[in-house]
Amino acid sequence: MMRLVRDACWGAVAVTVALGWPGSGGLAAPPEVLPSGLKPDEVEKRRYVDYARECVELLIEHGTDRYGKVQSPLLMNILDVRTRACPEDPAVLDQAYRVIRRGRRGPAGGNLYPDQPTIRAMYLLSRATGKPQYAAFADRCTGYTMKSLVDEKGFLWWGWHRHYDAYRDVMTGHSGNHHEIHVQQVLWPELWRVHRQATAREIEAVWQWHVIDKGSGECNRHGDAQRGCDFAMSGGEILAAFAFLYGQTKEQKWLDRTRLVADYYRNARHPETGLIPNRPNAGKDRFDGSHFDTSITAFLCTRLLAASEWTGETAFRDQAVAYLRAYAKHGYDPQAGTFWGSLLLDGSPVPGPRVAGGYAQYEPRGHIDLWQPYAAGYEHPIATAQAYAAAARMTGDAQLLEAAGRWAACIRRELPPRACRQETWYDAYAKAWAPHGTYAEHYGRTISFFLAMHRLTRQQQHLDAARQVAREAVSKLYYRGLLRGHPAKPYYESIDGVGYLLVALVQLDQAVGGGPEDAADVENW
To answer: pTM score > 0.90 for this model?
Structure first.
């Protein structure tokens, strides 16, 4: 067990260090953009799997904890692609808009939670290439956290409030160091295979500390047994954990607990539209207490689908389908050919402009912004598109497939990613950074979505779109073998979703090369 230190100062530090260039609103000026040496039309001279393999091999060679007195296979969350080292004091860059709080980046250390997509890529790479070393490393990295980085409640030391400082050899964090369940979706089957006891311990702790009302199913994104933010994205991951453990143990209590949390959100639905608030316990004082947004479709619905597969209970699938149908009905603007970012529960769209200042600025008013920078928050349109494709494939539902097609058309119109909405709280990012391109996560999820659509429809346009985005992504993000988090950053960063792009490149290689469809799944999980 590593030494645990309490550091509640990160929030203040983030405010201090995020001061940027004049007029930036806290955003540091973008550095000189590092050239990839690749033009888009040159990318396909190599196989897509080779870019993923090269990056993964460099992460395994250079990207682990080689700092301090204790060294381990834990992946570092940030690597400078120029030196391939983890910076002890990473540059501010886009921090004020990508994560807001500095500690969320895992500065000077590692955090397995945002690395879940990267770990997934390693497993897929071994399946696709037949080479076991990538999966073997993923096992070692995962196993290290599960055995060595555990708190007094039985939680893994991971999430959005905590990370391991590799230079100081301490488990640290910010704003209370809470165990937090946010937008990352955990690879429960892989964790279970690596360490069953630790996986069960983690899920038991989630029930004990995150489900704060054992009668209603009300939960909190923080694992402190206190009433707090019952975000739908958190609830989705919580119920998925319970569903997974039921699938492994067949203990009735885990199925009951899955139903309890799922029904907590279902019971808050509007009687006519079927729309639910993101936060049932927020009331009218915050917009998320009375509005529906795409974090619900992206994460609650996706995990309800997973829960249905793990438990065999169609009720969870039906709940996801109901929310997806409701948003498809009320959230699409046929005149604009796009979707609304926020809906009142009666189905009315919330028009723009977006609010400037205060918590209300985070409500995605008006139409969705596909390439917005914030990694958390309420706007997740590409992951929502993936949810529609996954649900359509699972159910064969024509309405869901139509909605997925609308998402595909909407995304194609905004390719390549060069802009996001201005006159918002992230206006400085929109003006200075967005013209360079977007985040690895956005590129990766978009590729995976179009591959899912190609698998559903066999329409060539979807495969062509996936290849178009992949050429753009690699030509923008590649640098001497590593893939960066953003074209205007000199860093590989877990929080920027490089793992999603690695997954997508393996998937695309299979699709282009005619490999077996099950060699690299095309759903978000």
So the answer is: yes
